[in-house]
């Protein structure tokens, strides 16, 4: 689904969101109250400029509108892979974006992520996965690393990873697997405005992903390991 169709279904034709290249931003009205919207489109690679632009919206929202909800619209191919951005410190820019989102959450803003098209790698990790909750459309594509790249990093045979991906969501791409692992809280279908309303009302204020992953069978050990660490601390 393209972002204009999504925005219209969520907020109506006068949604107030605009695109500056690959950068989405604007203030929409939802159930009579303002909600800040920020994100990307066109499978945008997240470089220094885009990361800082999104962080600026989050910072300005905290400064000017304390407590206002923030919706992150996610469509990214991951971090920008070019020397220019590496030299400018893309790692710090993306970390800055993640820290701004986390700070907004700590200051009482409800921050929701919605993967409406594609979410890959660091562009997803430093946005939707740091929100109070991250949801997705059923047709969205989510993955952190392709299996061939995973094979090179882990030194495991591609055939073995392919076999593991059939039974273990941790090794497999796809939105359903991220729901099973708890990384995606739910899929929005049908009435998208109703789904947003429910997400704003029900999104947790603490990290529930490990617990959700255990309950759904996608990450069976993470929650228990976290609990053991907390008890030992």
The CATH H-level superfamily is 2-enoyl-CoA Hydratase, Chain A, domain 1
What is the helix/strand order? HEEEEHEHHEHEEHHHHHH
Instruction: State the major sheet.
Output: 8 strands, mixed
Termini separation comes to 45 Å
Radius of gyration: 18 Å
- Range of helix content: 40-55%
Shape: globular
Helix/strand structural class: alpha/beta
Low-confidence residue ranges:
none
| CATH C-level label | Alpha Beta
Strand residue percentage: 15-25%
Count of folded domains = 1
- Helix count equals 11
Number of strands: 8
- Give the overall average pLDDT: 91
Summarize the structure in words.
With 233 residues, the chain is of the alpha/beta class. It has a single domain, classed as 2-enoyl-CoA Hydratase, Chain A, domain 1, CATH 3.90.226. The protein is built from eleven helices and eight strands. It has helices at residues 3-11, 48-64, 83-88, 90-106, 121-125, 147-154, 158-165, 175-181, 192-202, 209-216, 222-232, and strands at residues 17-20, 23-30, 33-40, 44-46, 70-79, 111-120, 133-136, 141-143. Strands 1, 2, 3, 4, 5, 6, 7 and 8 form an eight-stranded mixed sheet that branches. A hairpin with a 2-residue loop joins strand 2 (23-30) and strand 3.
Task: Describe the secondary structure blueprint for this structure.
Elements: H1 3-11, E1 17-20, E2 23-30, E3 33-40, E4 44-46, H2 48-64, E5 70-79, H3 83-88, H4 90-106, E6 111-120, H5 121-125, E7 133-136, E8 141-143, H6 147-154, H7 158-165, H8 175-181, H9 192-202, H10 209-216, H11 222-232
Parallel strand pairs: 3-5, 4-5, 5-6, 6-7, 6-8
Antiparallel strand pairs: 1-2, 2-3
Helix pairs in contact: 2-4
């Amino acid at each position: 689904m393209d972002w204009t169709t999504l925005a219209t279904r969520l907020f109506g034709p006068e949604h107030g969101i605009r695109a500056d290249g690959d950068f989405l931003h604007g203030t929409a009205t939802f159930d009579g109250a303002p909600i800040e919207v920020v994100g990307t489109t066109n499978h945008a690679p997240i470089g220094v400029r885009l990361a800082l632009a999104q962080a600026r919206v989050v910072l300005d929202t905290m400064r000017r509108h304390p407590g206002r909800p923030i919706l992150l619209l996610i469509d990214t191919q991951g971090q920008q892979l070019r020397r220019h951005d590496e030299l400018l410190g893309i790692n710090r820019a993306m970390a800055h974006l993640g820290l701004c989102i986390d700070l907004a959450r700590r200051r009482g803003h409800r921050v929701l992520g919605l993967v409406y098209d594609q979410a890959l790698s660091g562009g997803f990790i430093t946005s939707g996965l740091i929100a109070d909750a991250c949801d997705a459309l059923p047709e969205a594509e989510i993955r952190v690393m392709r299996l061939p790249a995973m094979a090179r990093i882990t030194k495991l045979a591609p055939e073995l990873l392919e076999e593991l991906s059939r039974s273990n969501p941790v090794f497999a791409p796809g939105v359903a697997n991220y729901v099973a692992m708890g990384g995606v809280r739910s899929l929005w279908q049908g009435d998208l405005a109703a789904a947003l309303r429910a997400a704003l009302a029900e999104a947790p204020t603490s990290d529930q992903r490990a617990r959700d992953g255990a309950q759904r069978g996608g990450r069976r050990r993470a929650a228990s390991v976290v609990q053991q660490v907390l008890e030992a601390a």
